[in-house]
Amino acid sequence: MEFSSKLLERAVNEMSQLPGIGKRTALRLVLHMLKQPKTQIQALSEALQSMRNDIKFCKSCNNISDVDVCEICANPHRNEKIICVVEDIRDVMAIENTSSFKGLYHVLGGKISPMDGVGPHDLNIESLVHKVKEGQVEELIFALSSTMEGDTTNFYIYKQIQAYNVQTSTIARGISVGDELEYADEVTLGRSIVNRIPFETSLKS
Amino acid sequence: MEFSSKLLERAVNEMSQLPGIGKRTALRLVLHMLKQPKTQIQALSEALQSMRNDIKFCKSCNNISDVDVCEICANPHRNEKIICVVEDIRDVMAIENTSSFKGLYHVLGGKISPMDGVGPHDLNIESLVHKVKEGQVEELIFALSSTMEGDTTNFYIYKQIQAYNVQTSTIARGISVGDELEYADEVTLGRSIVNRIPFETSLKS
């Protein structure tokens, strides 16, 4: 792609470094910005920079926060004995949206994935094991995605904490609410039958 | 969407103002940025700001440029008597990529579109008509997209310059090279038959 302006080219190159944004999309976005007021581009730049420079990670759960300990961890009404282990902050937001969990979270920051060069020591596993060792935790809920990497990570953590007195559970896998059975994949359908729950229980949720 | 950090929320809100980028995509991009070195985010911010603040539009053709007169207009080897009228700078880049045009361009900056509140006076039509009036132009090539708005714009300009001694043409509409006839739409196929060209001519291009 040949540009008539170095400034334009630089802006397009920088934008196209973002994931999922190619040169054409970057050009479209950048040309849109040219039509916006200067103040708006300044606001965008400042927001990105101050986020990158000033954002903090909660000392306890590694969630993104503006203060040292995030709102969830600092909330005295939440049950600190139950910890939900998630991959990243988007999962925290998704679970919080359901309003069905009143414990705390622990954000790993990824999954063990040797193919991508991510080992256990690149994730926040040590601090989680530490919490368990200290006897602060009654139940760990594994809420990682159900992939090979997610399962590996679950199992790795499980091995580390097995010796301590802590319950472990994983979120239920099954047919999504509203889904047709005939379109479900075999593994999910099979698991949903093996892990069936009493009908009375299903009436309550 | 509830955010655990105001800084994050602000960054997501600013990013999601860009066209085609919703809150979820913005969050994904912003979380990606958090994992990048601070210098990279700074480079992105600076590139966007300096582009928005310092970029110029060519005085002659309205193309984006770093200097007052763009490279194309300043090139003495190009034929200044032939002007290709396009909608925006992306069209200039697309035509330049083909290396088949050696005249100059005139970038309108949009199409006449009453539905979107864009009238003739919002576009760079006046300066084009001025060029024609001064007798600087021998041929105008209309290369706008073949939509109602494009046709309206073509016709508006044509009416303005009709009285002067200038040839006008539009780019050829027809079946794309490599396309199967059976999948072409009727209008395109019909036009391609009405506007057929001598076989000898087609051998040369």
From TrEMBL, chains A, B:
Name this protein carries in UniProt: Recombination protein RecR
Domain of life: Bacteria
GO terms, biological process: DNA recombination; DNA repair
Example GO molecular function: zinc ion binding
Zinc fingers (C4-type) by residue: 58-73
Keyword DNA-binding carried by entry: no
PROSITE patterns: RECR, TOPRIM
Membrane-spanning ranges: none
